[in-house]
Amino acid sequence: MLDALTVAVAVTALALAAWCGFAAYRDQPTKDWHFIGMAVVSVLALAQLLVGIVQLARGERPDQGMTIFIAYLIGAFTAVPAAGFLSLSERTRWGSVTVAAGAVVLAVLEVRLYDIWGN
Amino acid sequence: MRDTDRTGTPASPAQERNTPRQKQQFELGSGPGRVLVWFYGVFTVAAASRSIVEMVLDFGKAPLAYVLSAVAAVVYGFITYSLVRGGERARRAALVCCAAELAGVLIVGTWTLLEPAAFPDSTVWSEFGMGYLFIPVILPVTGMIWLRRARNV
């Protein structure tokens, strides 16, 4: 798959995790700027989902199976928005922790996606 | 962290009964509980989709491992639901499930180490959840600490 995109998603996800972790450390809930950051990461994940589908349509196949690949792509796309929604109704530092955890989960999913696609 | 260390001194039943019970529907899924809801939700999805995919694709390869993953998914799903629902009954049910989850991780983890031949494919709980950064072991312990603490709120 597009390795540059996978790396970009993972790096921005980790940056988001650090940012929201810092907000939690300062006892702050997620704010508008954090949601813009989540949107950026989500757009990158959406781009990755689309690129993945296009590559499957062009006949390229992941090493570890198509079903697993698609499941991980969808999981990667939904991880940060889902955590964002949870933090919307949790206006404390714990909402920030949730988003940070969501971003870390996304970064882990990217590593797995890289393995699943292979070379 | 301070309050959670007092696990050795459980409140006596009489004392517990005297505390006001009007907060019947107290929130289990807010505050630190929100983070638990997130992780339990993620693991419900992870374990459920994993076992479904594996069972549909090739159930015969490692039936025991796949069934154990499905059981794990059900336990995770129930705990997520209890945390979101809140209230004393849900809290107790979640506590029982967290204990079952911890027992499951420890038993399956030991089992996979002692008898790898029984598991041609791994489960969510294999090797104490090593494939999932050991979160399957950490999660029930954190969950039980949170659920015990929620009683005193």
From TrEMBL, chain A:
Residues annotated as transmembrane: 33-57, 69-88, 94-114
Sorted UniProt keywords: Membrane, Transmembrane, Transmembrane helix
Domain of life: Bacteria
Listed name of the protein: Integral membrane protein
Organism: Streptomyces atroolivaceus
Automatic annotation (TrEMBL), chain B:
Keyword Transmembrane recorded: yes
UniProt signal peptide: none
Disordered: annotated segments: 1-25
Sequence ranges of Polar residues compositional bias: 7-25
Transmembrane segments annotated in the record for this chain: 35-53, 65-84, 93-114, 129-147
Keywords assigned by UniProt, alphabetized: Membrane, Transmembrane, Transmembrane helix
Protein name: Integral membrane protein
Organism of origin: Streptomyces atroolivaceus
